[in-house]
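Chapter summary example.
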Amino acid sequence: MKKTNLNGNKAIRLLAVAMFMMLPLQQPAAQQNILLETEARRLLEHFINRETEHVREMLAEEVNAMIPEGQLEEIANGLEVQLGSFEYVDRALFDKADEYEVVVLVCQFEKMEIGFRVVFNRGNMVAGFQFVPAPATSFSPPPVYADSSLFAEYEIAIDCDGITLPGIVTMPHEQQNVPVVVLVHGSGPHDADETIGPNKPFRDMAWGLASRGIAVLRYEKRTLKHGGTFDRNNFTIWDETGNDALAAVAAAREIPGADPGRIHLLGHSLGGMLAPAIASKDPGIAGIIIMAGNSRPLQYLVPEQYEYLMSLQGKLTDQQKDALEEIREQARAISENRLEGLTYRETLLNLPPAYWADLNSYDQRAVASGLPQRILVLQGERDYQVTMEDFAGWQKALKGHPGARLISYPTLNHLMMEGEGAPNPAEYYELKNVYQGVIDDIASWIGGG
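The structure predicted for these 449 residues follows.
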């Protein structure tokens, strides 16, 4: 096999060995960037050339210990199969995460562009790496339903149990005692806009609602830059999402001009699943909005998503069938509470057993049905991640709830953006905005409609 040399600007698989979460990308001027980019290119070159013994030489000792035998080979061997032949590195991006330095090489392969994210410790050893969607070079324009003359934005700091998360308040002009919506992210690391490719769902919602007289607080998710603040082997959804959401709600009550008695919480996807539990812990929350949130246990959804995505490529291969069966077995182990003695490397989505055990004790439908607060459920009918089966679960659970309203939208996907035909991940990378009808329905519901 011909070796690739990246020194002349030549150099992955979506399967990630993700020791660290996704980070925002900037380009600070630092002489050390030259050294770190060179090292990141060298690591990539070793993967391309399947020189996994040299990959291990570049890894920090604790990272080496965490990677099972054969996993590096699996990644290296799958690159060309999944992405086609390597063509070139288009650009390098740099950032910091706590005491770590981060380099992202944006790589062009035969089939697609992808980012190779490398995290370096203070000794310039590799403390983590992952293959991620390539960062966008442009973003969706402001939605037509947003009128920037009607609101202003400013930053705040949210105190979250020893760390500070940056937040953005979007406040209507010349109003007092306005209702507020706190936005809670889905799974994975997210910025305050919940940026996915070129799209910014939370920005769209904040600007659209503020144009209708409703203030919005959105904030950076802990896992974006502070993934090291909890034990990877023993954290729960409350460490990842719930506790920070409660802190954001408390911060929203202190916003000048806000009505502390009309603080609402909107959870998207995973945040929607957790929204009933958050509201149960803070009875002062006026109402919750479950947007594309699953009513079924999370482990039920993962095999479905994998199978659907595999089916988009045509008939499943024997290798894909084996991989899918392994995922199904991991899901069964969670449902049957067969978690004792496992580590996060052996469980679904590489989440620790404590995470899954905590979710096993949570029935979002039962909690939601017993809430005194008002509830709005929003669902896209083209959503392949959280499906209409979940919407039906919410309908059944909330049938007797006097303050519940449920709406589904025939053309919307998981991001509440319009599309046509069979849904697929590629549409998340098309320049779009959150559907105006969603904004109007939320505003009407908060207003009492």
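To summarize the output: The chain has two domains: 6-133, 148-299+333-446.
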